[in-house]
């Protein structure tokens, strides 16, 4: 029986022997480790990760950059304005009560002067409109305006209430710009006519340093500097004595300043009327 089996095995077809020797299923080769990692599904991003991914790196358009620059400039300007206001507030906060009252009075006086000027102009217009002889009224107002302009131009002498300010400068420390500041402060306070040491001050007046002296429109003057000013004394004197104003500035330079009120100040220094070289009246 054993010999019969051996004989049958030898006579068996080769392909049948091969089929019996091979396993039923051959497993497929395993993919590389890196490929397995790539084929795994990605984990969903959290809300925070999506927010960070959307904001960084930043992506700006040209319009967004322009808006950002404009906002930066606006913010910088506001910061400078706030700082300036803070400095002003600090200066006023440190002032005395009487100084604050003086400043408020000066502001009220300037407002009142502007209101008076407005009312005067309106009155002139009404007089021209209602006068029966408009030509005569126009001539009268023209003559009055000419007299006023002559006072402002320095071609006509003037008198009226005002102040006299005298500056003693024994140290020689007073300079031209300090006297010019005094002129500007007086003008802002309503001065209508000014002369300094015999020189009439007009709209085009200039001050320059000339060695140890000061020149006004090319005329050398020396201390003591005497200002004769026509205007409302109640406005002129406080304007010079405000904190940090003309008087305090000059006193810091070791100059002595005295201001006297008067019911009659005479400003008689005159200027020659100068004909303009190029400007002509547009009504001609």
TrEMBL record:
Record-linked Gene3D superfamilies: Protein of unknown function DUF881
Pfam families given in the database record: DUF881
Low complexity: bias regions: 33-44
Stretches with biased composition (Basic and acidic residues): 1-23, 114-126
Region (Disordered): 1-45, 114-143
InterPro entries linked: DUF881
Keywords: Membrane, Transmembrane, Transmembrane helix
Transmembrane regions: 63-83
Entry's family note: Belongs to the UPF0749 family.
Record-given protein name: DUF881 domain-containing protein
Taxon lineage: Bacteria, Bacillati, Actinomycetota, Actinomycetes, Kitasatosporales
């Amino acid at each position: 029986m054993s010999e019969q089996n051996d004989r049958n095995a030898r006579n068996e077809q080769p392909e049948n022997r091969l089929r019996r020797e091979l396993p039923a299923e051959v497993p497929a080769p395993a993919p590389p480790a890196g490929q397995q990692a790539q084929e795994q599904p990605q984990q969903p991003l959290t809300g925070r990760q999506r927010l960070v991914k959307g904001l960084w790196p930043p992506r700006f358009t040209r319009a967004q950059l322009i808006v950002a620059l404009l906002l930066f400039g606006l913010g910088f300007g506001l910061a400078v304005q706030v700082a300036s206001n803070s400095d002003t507030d600090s200066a006023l906060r440190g002032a005395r009560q009487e100084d604050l009252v003086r400043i408020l009075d000066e502001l009220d006086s300037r407002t009142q002067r502007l209101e008076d000027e407005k009312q005067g102009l309106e009155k002139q217009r009404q007089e021209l409109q209602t006068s029966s002889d408009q030509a005569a009224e126009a001539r009268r107002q023209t003559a009055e305006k000419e007299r006023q302009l002559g006072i402002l131009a320095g071609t006509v002498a003037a008198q009226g209430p005002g102040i006299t300010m005298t500056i003693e400068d024994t140290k020689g420390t007073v300079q031209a710009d300090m006297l010019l500041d005094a002129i500007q402060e007086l003008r802002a306070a309503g001065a209508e006519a000014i002369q300094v040491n015999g020189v009439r001050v007009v709209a085009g007046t200039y001050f320059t340093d000339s060695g140890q002296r000061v020149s006004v429109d090319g005329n050398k003057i020396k201390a003591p500097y005497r200002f004769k000013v026509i205007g409302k004394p109640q406005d002129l004197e406080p304007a010079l004595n405000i904190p940090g104003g003309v008087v305090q500035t000059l006193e810091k330079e070791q100059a002595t300043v005295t201001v006297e009120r008067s019911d009659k100040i005479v400003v008689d220094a005159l200027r020659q009327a100068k004909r303009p070289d190029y400007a002509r009246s547009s009504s001609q």
